[in-house]
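Hi L.,

You mentioned the student needs an example of a multi-chain input paired with its predicted structure. This one should do, with 740 residues in total across all chains.
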Amino acid sequence: MNTSFEFDLTAQDGRARTGIFHTPHGDLHTPLFAPVGTQATVKSVTPAQLEELGTNLILANTYHLYLRPGDELIARIGGLHQFMHWDMPILTDSGGFQVFSLADNRKIDHDGVTFKSHIDGSTHRITPEKSIAIQENLGADIIMAFDECAPPYDLFYNERALERTHTWAERCLKAKTRSDQALFGIIQGGVYPELRQRSAEFITSLGFPGYAIGGLSVGETKGETYTILELVDALLPQDKPRYLMGVGSPADLVNGVLRGVDIFDCVLPTRLARHHVAITRMGRLNLANAGHSSDAQPIDERCSCYTCLHFSRAYLRHLILAKEMLAATLLTIHNLNTLLELMRDIRQAIAAGDMNKFSSEFMAKWEHSE
Amino acid sequence: MNTSFEFDLTAQDGRARTGIFHTPHGDLHTPLFAPVGTQATVKSVTPAQLEELGTNLILANTYHLYLRPGDELIARIGGLHQFMHWDMPILTDSGGFQVFSLADNRKIDHDGVTFKSHIDGSTHRITPEKSIAIQENLGADIIMAFDECAPPYDLFYNERALERTHTWAERCLKAKTRSDQALFGIIQGGVYPELRQRSAEFITSLGFPGYAIGGLSVGETKGETYTILELVDALLPQDKPRYLMGVGSPADLVNGVLRGVDIFDCVLPTRLARHHVAITRMGRLNLANAGHSSDAQPIDERCSCYTCLHFSRAYLRHLILAKEMLAATLLTIHNLNTLLELMRDIRQAIAAGDMNKFSSEFMAKWEHSE
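Structure written out for the whole complex:
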């Protein structure tokens, strides 16, 4: 079992890079996209189907699994890998983002957060130490520091939240006991370059095996996202992986890679699938539309996924109208394949030194894809 | 393409038999169980998963597909095999059973049935000729005569319904135009031996490539089912397959095989799966029960299905409580595997001349399985 969590940069093309991140459950070839399995399942597909798609890393949510079925129960069953039958790497978030999203049902203090469960209203408290304890019970390969994601345009709030995020990062490092998990630090600071710089400098000074950029894609403009990404990219060590949290449209992936990002995750492909929407190179396609009712074509005839190889738009629309579960499964397979294939193409382009050409062609081809 | 629809008996053991039924989409090894794909999908699983389970024949419902998406649309897409991507044999029912189940929303006359759609209340009419036309558009390998399934204990109703069923069987035969579909005749007559005998004699006199026994498992006692099955078995030609419609608990399958049945279908395994119930040799198991909350065992440790090889009862219960679609998928895989494996065991026992031993052992082992 490789517990070194080394990151080997294998190619660079401008700011874009390819690399291999070594984890106890195998190597991750970056840049990569991680599907989200909030409740220890990527919704509507089996692990076998995920593996067939070429998925390597998946993300699971600490907040949800802590509440149900409970991290201690998962530890008794043998940990999250065993519980959900995923033998490749897993990443868990810290629970912070979900807890802070509870709005009226949470109270933050310098030591942690007290909140009410969305399931049964019961009261719980998560501190940095508790977040690490939960994540150690879950046993993911990559775990995250407990941070506070502030509203992007509230300078005063961001300043206070950043202090907490930094103190909590130190406490997370101290609380950590398992050597087979890589704890990533998180850079916060909203849209404010000074705060982002201060955060990047402080968090990197603590020496993590990887760094996440939090608090982006939460309401700011694309221009602001890119400014912050470029600023942070220049401050992060080259020899550690960078993870842009919660980002996942095709254009966002390409733009992130162009600015030095290695790891992405997002619910977008799986959530759109359950809302009947396919992500394609020609844009988003709502398969519930009547226009598809007798269309014998697949979603995308250039796509080689199981869904596109075997099923027509007419069939998918029929499944949607008939409220058949297979609709979500087939659309999830297609959407995940689209993003995973895009990342394979990106890795190839970087290795070939063609990332500029690739991204211009991408922007032309996929221009309607947002 | 083999359009002969010959049935080769390969072994007999008492009344139980194994055989091979040749269809344009491949050979069916009987006795067999056919999963139900009412709306052109076996709920919650992909065709690839069905194939991996060793499924050969699946059933689809004419009533549902006629209403939505429409048999003409399916014909334009290339037929039901192409539409739902199932390259092995398909059987469609006649639509009769579903239409007659509409109770207040249908009116029967000597020529056919007028009914209101359960989807939008629109008025439709199915006659024997129309049922065959729809089934020819769908293009299944085995199609069924349009019949009337009367309440089992109403002698007067059964007498009238039997007249219609017989006249309609003749009209179906006349209406049929495709040579690549086998039209099966249906024996009716409720719990009344005289009617069943009359029906078997009349329907077999018309010369179908296979025969279905309808109107059983609709409220009568097991003893009555067996009496009728034994009576009909003795009257049906040995060299044609017999299909017991809508039957599918493990004990019902064994008891049917012991009385000469070759083909079964039932929604039971897939419907129970969506209601959190696993079919096992130790009886039915409701995975939603709190007793399974921290149980690291699979549903059945002797089962070799994908679900039992990789997932604990605790995980399945978690998926159920979290309302995750994967619960239905994994339970469907297990339940279908249980019935398909039972049928493989039965075929082996018959071939070995061990069916009596097999069924006694089955009754002892599976005694709590109903």
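You could point out the following to them. The interface with chain B takes residues 39-41, 43-49, 64, 68-69, 73, 76-78, 83-85, 293-294, 296, 306, 310-312, 314-315, 317-319, 321-322, 324-326, 328-330 of chain A (CB under 8 Å). The radius of gyration of chain A is 20 Å.

Best wishes,
N.
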